Amino acid sequence: MKCKLILLLATAVSLSVLPPRPAAAEGILFGVVPGDRMTMTTRSNVRIHLNGNYLGFRYGEERIILDEGAIQLDTSRLGPGQTYRGTAFVLSNTVRDQRQAARSLDDIVPVELHIGYDGTFTLDDRDPVIAVRSIPSFPDRELVPGDTWEAYGQVVVDPFQDGVPTTVPVLIAYRFDGFDSYLGEPAAVISAQYALRYRQGQDRRGDPELQTIQGRHILQIFMSADGSRPLFIRDTLQDQFLYRDGTRVEMSGFRLTFFDTPRSRTAGELRERLTVRPQIREQLPPPIADPPAPGLPSERPDSERSDPPGIAEAVDPGTARPGDPADDPTAAQEQITIEQTDLGLRLSLPSIRFVADQAVVLPAERDRLSSLAEALQEGLTLNPDASFMIVGHTADIGLAENQQRLSEERASAIVAEMVQRGLPADRFLYQGRGGREPIADNDTPVGRALNRRVEVYIIE
Fold first, then answer.
1. How many Cα neighbours within 13 Å face the side chain of 454?
2. Residues 375, 277: Cα–Cα separation, whole Å
3. Looking at residue 181, what DSSP letter applies?
4. Bridge-partner residues for 94, per DSSP?
5. DSSP readout, 57-76?
6. Which pTM does this prediction carry?
7. 184: left (phi > 0), else alpha (psi -120 to 50), else beta?
8. Which candidate, 350, 381, 365, 354, places its Cα nearest to that of 418?
9. Is residue 26 in some structural domain?
10. Residue 265 and which of 55, 107, 151, 237 are 20 to 30 A apart at CA?
């Protein structure tokens, strides 16, 4: 009995010195408070097996820049939120490496979507971008660490990337884990998971050859400490796709999504700064070329080598306008034109001179390239977050596949010239568009010279 009494007294004493229990944590009403601008960058890195055979890594990236604006999508039945218009830059899938380098673009896709205050995304089901939609989304109540909830989302899959996406609805289980830090800032942390399940025909507009999908996704989500903005999502995935012909594709790896609110656009100020420079002028609409007379054979050559050297200087007086390079025989080689576009401020190098049928810039272009590099450096000074997209164009002569290859190589060559002049390589994207977007008549040497051009977009 004495021992029991001592034990009870000791227990009472120990309880009396315990610190008081903290008051219940104040709840957070999670959601998305959209701003005027938003960016989402998703990077995926997955291992791929085909019919049990390891194929390697697929590394992909999608960068989406959104600005508040009206859209064509019917939002009358949607909850409160914000509508955005923007552009998705879809980068090539490559074997991953650790070098900072320019990346080739696969596609540029216009985007229109509605983002609800509860985190739900609404956009056209057939849009090939934003593969994971309405994740995260939140209930209309305050949450404290330890709370759980469920919500629906969508995942768009296209394992063979053949342009036939399949949309799969998913039910996500969430848990508010508490608080941590993200990039040195306090953040709320949420864990989530969902099963990816699909049977043939559930998406009537999906891939008719896709028979079943089985997969598991585990997510870690970082929100701003006040719960109003998504910051980062890590999605660890393991999926299996089975096709009607017995083909089996297995993917495992992770997908990282970064959210940001970019700086205000500086294109107006940059344009004012650049147009006072003698090498840069405002872009004027190109002259409208007369159509060829009916019945006459085309004089279009099969190769750039067929055009006489120095043809960019041979300007047709009949197309001259005040301020046009035609007023000065050498202006076409010295000028950089500037123009505001939906993608951003565009700097163009018309009639840029390469070795014929090669991606080797002629020495005569050195000064113009240096002027371009100085303009881009000015853009980085105004907006350190800016990036650059370089687009190569050729004249429409020869085979289309050769035009495409040459335009890509020439765009890459301009990237290399900019990097040599001190600009960081990882700020550049590049794309070739062959001869599909002429600005002049391809049936004349002068027109073909104008179509051989490089355009640089400053993306904010």
1. 31
2. 10
3. E
4. 59
5. EEEEEEEEEEEE---SS--T
6. 0.77
7. left
8. 365
9. no
10. 107
Number of CB atoms found within 10 A of residue 357's CB: 14
CA distances from 346 to 1, 253, 325 (A): 91, 37, 18
Write out pLDDT tens, residues 231-256.
999 999 999 999 999 999 999 999 99
Dist. CA 444–CA 453, nearest whole Å: 16
Q: Are residues 278 and 171 in the same domain?
A: no
CA 331 to chain centre: 35
What CATH number is associated with residue 124? Answer: 2.30.230
Q: Nearest 5°: phi and psi at 25?
A: -65, 145
Q: Which domain holds residue 406?
A: 267-284+321-459
Of 124, 358, 160, nearest in space to 249 by CA? 160
Using the 8-state DSSP alphabet, how is residue 305 labeled? G
| Gyration radius from the chain CA atoms | 28
Strand runs labelled E in 225-354: 230-243, 248-260, 280-282, 336-340, 345-349
Q: What DSSP character marks residue 408?
A: H
Among the ranges given (204-208, 363-367, 442-446, 450-454), the one the predictor scored with the smallest mean pLDDT: 442-446
Q: Do both 354 and 374 map to the same domain? A: yes
Distance CA 248, CA 47 (A): 14
Establish if 295 belongs to a structural domain: no
Residues linked to residue 116 through DSSP beta bridges, in sequence order: 81
Give 70-118 pLDDT, tens digit per residue: 888 777 778 889 999 999 998 866 554 444 566 788 888 899 999 999 9
Phi-psi region of 143 (alpha: psi -120 to 50; beta: other; left: phi over 0): beta
Kindly give the pairing relationship between strand 453-459 and strand 121-122. Answer: unpaired
**248-260/37-50 β-pairing:** antiparallel
Is residue 24 pLDDT above 50, yes or no?
no
Residue type, 53: N
Identity at 446, one-letter amino acid code: V
Q: Check whether residue 104 and residue 180 sit in a common domain.
A: yes
Q: Are residues 222 and 275 in the same domain?
A: no
For residue range 31-43, list pLDDT tens digits in order.
998 788 889 999 9
- What's the rounded Cα separation, in Å, for the pair 407 and 328? 27
The Cα 305–Cα 309 span in angstroms is 8
Task: Name the CA dihedral angle for 136, 142, 145, 148, rounded to a multiple of 10 degrees.
Answer: -60
Q: What angle do CA 154, 158, 162 make, to 5 degrees?
A: 145
| Angstrom distance (rounded) from CA 126 to CA 123 | 9
Q: What is the DSSP letter of 302?
A: S
